[in-house]
């Protein structure tokens, strides 16, 4: 189970607000996160990944406390065994598609799994290309394959299919679900597409305006 009870100051167009999230997410499930733009979905994923430090609270994965403000615990992102894919992809420009995907596996390389991902995500013809030669959708597919290459305990996917066409989107939804069925990583996927949420989510975390409150009450 991932236990989250956090508060964090965010800067919105209406000024400073407090994002407040308290929830328990079950292990090994496919969890979709939805909610209006700017509500804090990306911020929440970054706090779970350890890339943003919440102002207050606890984030716990099973027995492992990732973050506890009262006890001054803040495990580094590298020690959380999380695979994350954010909206800017962050591909290494000097590496090919294949090298980008393989790099995610750290020390223990599994070339067969890299090859499977390259095939599943339609990247065979692009294997030796560098990111500057790729379209937006091709970069997105590379970033997705790279995230899955690591076989992490938790996968955080921030709108991973927003730049691919509808046919490719359905194919890749099925590939992501197959990977989840094979490895059972607890997966959090942010999506604005209600059909996608209905199809993929075994449960849904809905963020809404009740999670945001005025700074005056903080
Ligand atoms: N580093 C930061 N510090 C403080 N506030 C931030 C920071 N980054 C983003 N914000 C603010 O936090 C709020 C939530 O942003 P976030 O990107 O998490 O929303 P989102 O729900 O993922 O939006 P979208 O669906 O448009 O991607 C926004 O108002 C944004 O301006």
TrEMBL record:
Task: Write the protein's name.
Answer: Molybdate transport system ATP-binding protein
Q: Which domain of life is it from?
A: Bacteria
Q: Which PANTHER family match?
A: SPERMIDINE/PUTRESCINE IMPORT ATP-BINDING PROTEIN POTA, SPERMIDINE_PUTRESCINE IMPORT ATP-BINDING PROTEIN POTA
Q: Which organism is it from?
A: Apibacter mensalis
InterPro entries, alphabetized = AAA+_ATPase (IPR003593), ABC_SmlMolc_Importer (IPR050093), ABC_transporter-like_ATP-bd (IPR003439), P-loop_NTPase (IPR027417)
ABC transporter domain: which residues?
1-218
Listed Pfam families? ABC_tran
Q: Which residues cross the membrane?
A: none
- Tell me which UniProt keywords the record has, alphabetically: ATP-binding, Nucleotide-binding, Transport
- Does the record's keyword annotation contain Cell membrane? no
Tell me the GO molecular function terms: ATP binding; ATP hydrolysis activity
């Amino acid at each position: 189970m991932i236990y989250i009870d956090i508060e964090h100051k965010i800067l919105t167009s209406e000024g400073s607000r407090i994002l407040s999230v308290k929830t328990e997410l079950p292990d090994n499930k496919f969890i979709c996160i939805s909610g209006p733009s700017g509500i804090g979905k990306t911020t929440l994923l970054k706090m779970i990944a350890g890339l943003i430090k919440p102002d207050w609270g606890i984030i716990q994965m099973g027995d492992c406390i990732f973050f506890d403000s009262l006890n001054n615990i803040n495990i580094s992102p590298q020690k959380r065994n999380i695979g994350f894919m954010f909206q800017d992809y962050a591909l290494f420009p000097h590496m090919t598609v294949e090298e980008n995907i393989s790099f995610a596996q750290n020390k223990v390389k599994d070339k067969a799994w890299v090859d499977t991902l390259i095939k599943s995500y339609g990247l065979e013809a692009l294997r030796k290309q560098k990111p500057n030669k790729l379209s937006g959708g091709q970069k997105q597919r590379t970033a997705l394959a790279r995230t899955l290459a690591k076989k992490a305990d938790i996968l955080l996917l921030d709108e991973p299919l927003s730049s691919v066409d509808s046919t490719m989107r359905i194919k890749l939804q099925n590939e992501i679900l197959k990977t989840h069925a094979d490895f059972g990583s607890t997966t959090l996927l942010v999506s604005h597409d209600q059909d996608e949420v209905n199809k993929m989510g075994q449960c849904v975390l809905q963020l809404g305006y009740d999670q945001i409150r005025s700074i005056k009450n903080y």
